[in-house]
Write a structure and sequence with these properties.
664 residues, alpha/beta, Rossmann fold, 9-stranded parallel sheet, binds alpha-D-galactopyranose
């Protein structure tokens, strides 16, 4: 898209006067900024009254930016409808499950099913695209902003009607819907589409399939809003790439479906600087983004330079941490680093949010760090065509996430992300890069596939996973997997029905633990680890036992197993192991799968690789406050310092090196 790595941020010139715009453009140039997200919240400025458009300010800003070498990632400003639209059409306002209307005065106050909203948004987008289509500054479209941030499920009457239409399309007949929803239970049989309701507040637990379909429907509805705009933009500006900014592991939207409709994946990431493990969670999000885009470069569209303003205590990134977070994104496949926002606001609810240009102006630590980063990124064009490779995939599916975390489970404390983080952290500490994969995706290129809590599994996914192992893959599956089909109906015949052959075992029952209850697991060679949350009561039908439970009525029965299936191997973990237990398990699974620790590093040193057809670059990020000396697999040149590096690299606290390795 640009011949350089992207560097910039959100710019809201409507909050400032034209003399400030001129200073902004000069300072952007000074900082090495080459892309700015413009107009994200500018609907009221562009269309101050119904059908009256004012583009003069936008033209001036785009001209000014272009003459300063800055291109524009132009937003469709549809995320915050102007007050006149609410006055004209109050029915656009969203309604909660309890029937409460959410009013304007902040943002995202619209229902995705409101025809008035969608018509006005489409009119605005059309006018905007027609107006700017030939402007040389236009580089990319940023559609809306963070779909479903703050609010994702509207329960108004228009939404209920849209849900019924969506269900008619999905099922074709009421008989099929009644079957899928299991409406024989609790007298829920439907005899007319008009009887069907959104899952508004009910006295007792809602039908789980109804709820699951509602989550599917909501994700699809917002996608329709995105597609409304994309169709207009594609027609008027066929060569301009289109994105919308994601929010990491965000539950409301099935980003697999969404990413397939975008030209480039982009993401907003706000790790909490007070969390000493922030780099793990942030790294995991980077890996998800790369995976959503099928390995293609993605853009870190927003991050904070220092602090946000929406936590209870908004701790700030320490010197060097913004730089580390930025390089982490590049190290994990991004080709762009951007911020919210360019200039810190003077008014409004985000006036205490950090920015590239803080209230203190250019005589500030943050500005100096921003300038340094901009200068460095300007020297890294060599990375543009490189990619990140991974031998390990963690299976991740939004439908499974939705179904797993509905109420009514054996343990309602079972949550998907903590399990994933536990595995991811172990791999992260070993500097093993991870992809995320949909359970129906081609898995053949991975040496190891981890399936944590794959509760809901389609027939296709089950076959795909079985084929992967049969053909030589290594699988590590954890408890409460393979339990229901796509309708959230139990797969009968002994858990986990679709994986019993593959795992060489079956599970008679689950034994969820009380809060704070633990048990012990002992390995065949006598090592002991704590476990909690849950135990599967497992019977072996071929698998070998690697560890057993120490206590309770299932004491001595298998907790961890291994089975040779076809050309491959499957491991099964029937409980939640403490971190040292997971480390033990992953050590042997990785050994078996021939995944060698990329690099033995001191804790806090993150290492990844990007390669193209000719070169490999080793990213070494020292998140720690200690100086470190690191052995490299070959000598090379550090792109950041231009210094030759021997096979031992010295890095200062919070230091970064990008070593282009010499061919060995
Ligand atoms: C999100 C939004 C931005 C801004 C930031 C603040 O990422 O997209 O408009 O509100 O949060 O952190």
């Amino acid at each position: 898209m640009l011949p350089h790595l992207i560097y910039g941020g959100d710019y809201n010139p409507e909050q400032w006067s034209p003399d400030v715009w001129r200073e902004d453009a000069q300072l952007m140039q000074e900082a090495g900024v080459n892309l700015i997200s413009l107009g994200v919240f500018a609907w009221a400025k562009i269309e101050p009254a119904p059908g009256q458009y004012d583009f003069t300010w936008l033209d001036q800003v785009m001209d000014l930016l272009y003459t300063h070498g800055v291109r524009v990632n132009l937003a469709t400003p549809t995320t915050s409808p102007p007050p006149w639209l609410v006055r004209l059409h109050p029915e656009i306002l969203p309604v909660t499950a309890e029937g409460v209307t959410l009013w304007h005065g902040s943002r995202r106050h619209y229902c995705p099913h409101s025809s008035a909203y969608r018509e006005h948004a489409a009119g605005l987008v059309k006018q905007l695209a027609q107006h700017v289509r030939d402007h040389s500054a236009l580089a990319m479209w940023h559609v809306d902003n963070e779909y479903t941030c703050h609010f994702g499920e509207c329960f108004c009457d228009a939404s209920v009607a849209a849900f019924r239409r969506w269900l008619e399309q999905r099922y074709g007949s009421l008989d099929a819907l009644n079957e899928a929803w299991g409406t024989a239970f609790w007298s829920q049989h439907y005899s007319d589409w008009e009887e069907i309701m959104a899952p508004r507040r009910t006295p007792a637990s809602i039908n789980p399939t109804q709820h699951l379909d509602w989550q599917r429907f909501c994700s699809d509805s917002w996608l329709v809003c995105f597609e409304d705009q994309k169709t207009i933009l594609r027609e008027l500006t066929p060569d301009t790439p289109i994105t919308t900014n994601f929010m990491g592991f965000h539950k409301a939207l099935d980003y697999w479906t969404w990413a397939a409709r975008e030209d480039i994946v982009s993401n907003d990431s706000y790790p909490d600087p007070s969390d000493p493990e922030w780099l793990i969670g942030a790294g995991m999000v980077c890996d998800l983004m790369r995976s959503l885009g099928k390995g293609q470069p993605w853009i870190l569209m927003e991050q904070a330079t220092a602090h946000v303003n929406w936590r209870q205590r908004n701790t700030t990134k320490r010197p060097g941490e913004m730089r580390l977070g930025s390089y982490q994104a590049l190290a994990r496949g991004a080709n762009g680093v951007m911020f919210f926002q360019w200039r810190a606001s003077q008014a409004g609810s985000e006036k205490f949010h950090s920015a590239m240009l803080p209230h203190a102006g250019t005589d500030s630590r943050v500005w100096r760090e921003i300038k340094q980063l901009g200068t460095e990124l300007g020297r890294l064009d060599a990375l543009l065509a490189s990619h990140v490779q991974s031998d390990v995939a963690i299976l991740f599916d939004w439908e499974n996430w939705w179904a797993l975390e509905q109420e009514g489970k054996p343990s309602n404390d079972l949550r998907l992300l903590p399990q994933i983080v536990a595995f991811y952290a172990e791999l992260f500490h070993r500097n093993i890069t991870v992809d995320f994969a949909h359970p129906e995706a081609d898995l053949t290129r991975y040496r190891l596939v981890i399936a944590p809590h794959l509760y809901l599994v389609s027939d296709r996914a089950a076959k795909n996973i079985e084929r992967y192992v049969a053909q030589g893959g290594t699988l590590l599956m954890t408890f409460f997997s393979g339990i229901v089909d796509g309708n959230d109906h139990i797969r009968l015949g002994g858990y986990p029905a679709p994986f019993r052959d593959l795992l060489g075992l079956w599970i008679e029952e689950f034994a969820p633990y009380a809060n704070a209850q633990t048990n012990g697991v002992e390995t065949v060679d006598g090592q002991r680890f704590t476990c909690d949350v849950w135990s599967d009561v497992i019977h072996l039908t071929g698998a070998e036992m690697l560890a057993h439970y120490q206590a309770d009525y299932f004491a001595n029965s298998p907790a961890v197993t291994r089975y040779r299936f076809g050309e491959g191997v499957s491991y099964y973990l029937g409980t939640a192991l403490a971190q040292d237990g997971l480390a033990w398990l992953l050590d042997q699974v990785c050994e078996k799968a021939k995944i060698h620790h990329a690099h033995h590093m001191p804790r806090g040193v993150e290492v990844t690789r990007r390669s193209d057809s000719a070169h490999t670059w080793l990213f070494v990020l020292n998140h720690s406050d200690e100086e470190v000396r690191i052995d490299l697999p070959a000598k090379g040149v550090d792109l950041l310092s231009d210094a030759a590096v021997q096979t031992s690299l010295h890095l200062e606290p919070k230091g970064v090196a990008i070593v282009q390795l010499a061919a060995t």
